[in-house]
Amino acid sequence: MTRRQRVMAALRGEHVDRVPLAFWMHNFATENSAKGLSGETLRLARTFDWDYLKPQSRAQGFAEMWGLEYRPSSERATAYTVTRTPLGSATDLARLKPADPLTGALGEQLEALRAIRAGVGADTPIIWTVFSPMMIVPFLLEGGRDRALEIARSTPTALETALDAITETLTGYVKACLDAGADGIFYATNLATRELLRADECKRFQRPYDLRVLDAASRAPFNVMHVCGGATNFGEFVDYPVAAFSWVVERRSAPHRPRGDGRDPGEADDHLDVPGRDRRRVSAALLDTGGRWLLLAPDCSVNPDTPEVLMHAARQARDASAGA
User: How many alpha carbons fall within 13 Å on the CB side of residue 268?
Assistant: First the structure.
């Protein structure tokens, strides 16, 4: 099978010659320009021959559209440093306006996407990271996540005004991503956990905005919903219009696949520190699913300083199970 045939068959639950596999990771030294991001993505694609790609764009890029500033890192595994957080209050949030998604940091990301598509050709599916509006808000606020949650409960209409502006920006960005060569979006949220947002808050601050963004991507065949964090409100997302679900595999809490009833999936070990453990974990996922409805991937991303031998070990386990 070609890469595209293999991935699309897996998404339909059909037989595949081998289970599709891709890993991704930040490189904090190269992700600060379109050239750097595309170059590192293409290097990884050549090195590992992934079946599909999720280029790991910089997390702060969305917030840059509303004034976040940062000092880049020159080291692969050392994160950036925020130098300016643009908003400080609910009043500031209520003043937020939509941004032009074809300019600034998002325009740069589109440039990288076009370069990656040109570099890998038409056969490799690409999913492009898009944060939910609710995930972007903490990047904009002094006080981060705690401040965002405080405003959600004290001044919810201010938060909703900001979410609406961010959502309008993202719907335009998502359409531009598909036009630039993405096969879908990797749509992520990291606030929908039981420790952070209650189920009713997910319905208010996540769902209406999420569905607008996903509707903008509805023509794409490979949209993925990524619910990040431990003890997630997974049931709030199981009916989202996506082709696949992704979730963080916490240590001692590693769901293999959603059960379809809104409850958290099962548990397993998640500490990937040696090639043998990588191989065992891949083999367990293949056994658990029978190799159907499955794409092998990291939870959020692989640590930037992960030895490449570990990623090769995952490939070897997958290929061994396929008889390759």
Answer: 19
